[in-house]
Specification:
single chain, about 210 residues, six-stranded antiparallel barrel, about 55% strand
Length: about 210
């Protein structure tokens, strides 16, 4: 995907990296002029951002909700005045690549679970592919209604945990970030967590430790 394929009013994330500092900022497309995308002026903490430093790496990330996010690296952003209005002009030397935006580790589970949506009180059977403290990947045989994707309640039980304790349901609430139709049937949904139980962080940490020790 070329940067010029972005459309007016679509939203992107501008990620700036300087040494160990990383800042994500939201931006919106105002217009596309050839290979340059005009963005409404980007502000951070109330101030218009200056992207002129040659030491700052700029990455543009776009999520359309249909597939994994796409990113353009080595971007350049300059201030530009067009028809009397100021914009941030964004350019990228190469086409985008698919990216994984995870900032923290996830553990691969492949455990059966239930997805609870309003039109299915008993829940939909799913497979929990992977889980972290900020995201979850799930697979279903049936397509989920679009209006349900902003609020997903997911339950599952991991019977491999402490055998001396009763099985405890792990419950998370999430919203879909991207989805993909699988070639062999079914759908995969990459989700960001909206809410999680307090013990989720301990659970994920224990699973990561188990994987390292095995």
């Amino acid at each position: 995907m070329k940067l010029s394929e972005l459309k007016k009013d679509q939203k992107v994330t501008i990620r700036c990296k300087y040494k160990t500092l990383l800042v994500d900022m939201n931006a919106q497309v105002a217009d596309v002029r050839g290979e340059v995308v005009l963005l409404h002026l980007i502000r951070h903490e109330g101030q218009v951002v200056d992207f002129s430093s040659p030491n700052v790496q700029i990455i543009t990330i776009y999520e359309d909700g249909l597939d994994m996010p796409r990113a353009w690296t080595n971007c350049k952003i300059q201030r530009r005045t067009v028809s009397g209005r100021e914009y941030h002009a964004l350019a990228a030397p190469k086409s985008s690549v698919r990216v994984n935006r995870r900032k923290v580790p996830r553990v691969v589970l492949n455990l059966p679970g239930k997805l609870r949506v309003s039109n299915l009180p008993e829940g939909m059977d799913i497979v929990i592919h992977d889980l972290g403290v900020n995201g979850i990947g799930i697979q279903t045989d049936a397509k989920i209604d679009e209006h349900e994707l902003k609020h997903l309640q997911i339950d599952f039980i991991d019977e491999s945990m402490d055998e001396d304790e009763d099985d405890e349901v792990i419950r998370v609430e999430a919203r879909m970030v991207w989805k993909k139709e699988l070639k062999n049937g079914g759908y995969f949904y990459g989700c960001r967590l909206n809410h999680m139980e307090e013990n989720l962080g301990y659970y994920v940490a224990n699973k990561i430790r188990e994987n390292r020790e095995s």
